[in-house]
Amino acid sequence: MRVQLIDKLFLNLRLIEALETIQQSRPATLESFRLALACGFTPLHLATFLHARVKQSFQDRNVILAETGVYGDLAGNLQRATKARPDTTAVIMEWPDLDPRLGVRQLGGWDPKTSGEIVDHTRLSLERIQTFLANLAEQSPVVVCAATLPLPPFSYEPGWQAGHAELQLRSSLALFLTQIAELKNVRIVSTQALARLSPESERLDVKSEINAGFAYSMKHAGAVAELLARLIHSAPPKKGLITDLDDTFWRGILGEVGISGIGWDLNHKAHIHGLYQQFLAALAQRGVLVGVVSKNDPKLVEEAFRDRTDLVAGSASLYPIEAGWGRKSEAVGRVIQAWNIAADSVVFVDDSPLELEEVKSAHPGIETFRFPTNDPAAAWELILQLQDLFGKAAVLAEDRIRLASLRNADEFSRSAGSGPSEDEFLERTEAQVTVETSPQSADARTLELLNKTNQFNLNGRRIEEGEWRRHLSEADTFLLVVSYQDKFGPLGKIAVLTGKVQTGLLKVTSWVMSCRAFARRIEYQCLRLLFEWFGAEEVVLDYQSTPRNGPTTEFLTAIQSGTLALPVRIGRAEFESRCPRLFHTVVRSPQ
Amino acid sequence: MNDPDAKLIRCFQAVFPDLKPEQIPQASAETVSAWDSVTMINLLNLIAEEFGVEVDWENFQELTSYAAIRDMVAAHQG
């Protein structure tokens, strides 16, 4: 099922369609995305597929593919790519790049006596490549696909026996990949994912390699291109998963079999449900919001979560739990509202096709999956598919506190909605805003905020990693990375503002704030700090309306007394006259 | 697209985007500056995929014009 899904995306793309995709012209006014391809062979249709696939990913860019290739000189090609300063480099390394005798195009000898020499030479080549790759990764992202082709029969063992030399080669390669994976900016194609798309026995095209110097079969070229393209740019991960309970989260109908009758382990012949729970608990630990919508007696569900202490994913991992007899689409709507995220960031899993259809028709953006209760293999495939939808490059500090901060935000809202006036309430929250201004503070979370935030987003513009690094390295760039905490708990990094310092004014090119931080006047504090810290008399905001940035529009409209003229210019006096009282303690880092 | 000529012209256009469709039947390695060994290999792989023929690597250096490639495809298709 999983392979078929990816097939639909790209692997069935014919070469002619890839070529025609590349040729489709785009407005010259679009920004460019410069992709370098570094390998030790002439990449032929691998380059074609990669170019087409990356172009499909970047609909708002002119994608330029620069092949920094001199045949047989991967190390040199990495150096050339470093000098060319591309936005991203795709590196494809095959065994012959490490020792030409590990290919089929060189007649360097497979004498058993030389196998030790091949191992040593491979190790040296890897060290050399690692040095150049590290230099390249210092300046821009690098994606790597390594040693996908089978080894030739250079050693004396039969094909079914892993020889000592082969194991040494694979060990050296594994060490190399482990070390480069630790470098900032380097991402590596999963060998497991590649094996699913392109079985090893179908990768090498000996005829093409001998005659044209290109060893990849058409299918393998498509698979490598697909996975590299996904590493270069893929859809943002989903943010929330809503699960049904009966015959999904656990096996059995709670209302029929009772609390002791539901199961999720081998003894109940329900182990796949245990694996699903384990996966959901892991998602929650990674910062994914996991909620429950179930047609059930709410009291019984509460008791089940309280009394069944053997649950793999307990109520601490789940928020909110919506149990009742109403329509599931309505309950799903309430969960999405509690999370304050868009429906298209959410996945709904249920064993009933009817319920899935009902939810989908009410929330068209939501992605729905049927839990195949009686088919463990299909359920396992579903888990793998969910892993791809929710997978991310790193788990950040903010991910670990997301669920807690959401619960805190809920408490914050309830507290704000009752009792004292808004000013009195905010004054009592003991809010602290910490602002980092050095470009070094721009970590993975900063870019994630810029590219994932929708509602408070100045213009919806997404920024690629290479472009972001260039922006930060420019002398006239300013940056505010804002973290927030109050007596209800920390929210972590919740806002980013950046732009250019110009004479007498600041030009803000990007400004995002997490929806978890709304209603705390942090947006006013951010503007106030711009005026105060940079001594600007005017702030010019590169605002553009998007289908989702209503909260930004609302805020700017309020500052500009009801009329939003483009470009949005806010003078110091105008801001001061409209800024409400602010109660945050502000900490600047570095001082 | 069932017309073999139209299909072949589409292949040529994909590999030589600067050629106009009416120029393609006269195209050859001598008249098209972009026709080098790499584009030749690309073109033959493309034709192999589109027409379901196997690339004749032994004799591919003789396939240096649209007419020659058209004849090769026709021969393969019987």
Write up this protein.
- The complex is a heterodimer of chains A (591) and B (78).
- Chain A folds into 3 domains: 2-232, SGNH hydrolase (Rossmann fold, 3-Layer(aba) Sandwich), CATH 3.40.50; 240-390, Rossmann fold (3-Layer(aba) Sandwich); 430-589, Gcn5-related N-acetyltransferase (GNAT) (Aminopeptidase, 3-Layer(aba) Sandwich), CATH 3.40.630.
- Helix content of chain A is 44%, strand content 18%.
- In chain A, helix 3 runs parallel beside helix 10 (218-232) and helix 14 (328-339) packs across helix 15.
- Chain A is globular.
- The model of chain B has no long low-confidence stretch (mean pLDDT 87).
- Chain B has one domain (4-77): ACP-like (Non-ribosomal Peptide Synthetase Peptidyl Carrier Protein, Chain A), CATH 1.10.1200.10.
- In chain B, 50% of the residues lie in helices and 0% in strands.
- Chain B is globular.
- Chain B is an all-alpha fold and 78 residues long.
- At the A-B interface, helix 2, helix 3 and helix 9 of A face helix 1 and helix 2 of B.
What is the CATH C level class of chain B, in words?
Mainly Alpha
What is the N-to-C succession of helices and strands of chain B?
Answer: HHH
CATH class of the largest domain in chain A: Alpha Beta
Q: Could you tell me the strand content of chain A as a percent range?
A: 15-25%
Number of beta strands of chain A: 18
Radius of gyration of chain A: 27 Å
Helix content of chain A: 40-55%
Query: Which word captures the global form of chain B?
Result: globular
What would you call the structural class of chain A? Answer: alpha/beta
